[in-house]
Amino acid sequence: MAPAFQTVTITTIADGSATVYSGKVTGRLVAIKYMPGSSQLATGADLTITAETTGQAILTKANAGTSTVWYYPVAAGSKVADGAASTLTEVPIFLCDERIKVVVAEGGDKKTGSIGFLVDAVP
How far apart are CA 53 and CA 56, in angstroms? Predict the structure, then answer.
């Protein structure tokens, strides 16, 4: 299967917060594109991105800014034998039939932007 790109609109409420979800995805998360939008999310917008069902941490970004930015998240590796940190410290993030949850704080009063996810689908 070919890689797929999904975009989700973010609209904050008066306190500057928002929670949005992607559609369900299966595959390797390759990249995240943060797009603050025309009514720009505040410079101080904080993003916490996780897998909805498993709660797997994907990306935490404080003060995301007002420019479009690409992120390429990876997870910390661990050893099979004892779960200790691996010398291979970064491994791809895989998702299986779950949505990506984006929580925004400090995004400004009623601001809009969007976030996109590039997923390399698994056949």
Answer: 8
pLDDT tens for 37-56 read 888 999 999 999 999 999 99
Q: Is the pTM of this model over 0.85?
A: yes
Phi, psi (degrees; rounded to nearest 5) at 15: -85, 5
DSSP string spanning 32-61? EEEE-TTTT--TT-EEEEEETTT--EEEEE
User: Are 66 and 41 a contacting pair, CB within 8 Å?
Assistant: yes
Domains of the chain and any CATH numbers? 4-121 (2.60.120.380)
Shortest CA distance to 32 belongs to which of 12, 56, 60?
Answer: 60
3-class secondary-structure state, position 1: coil
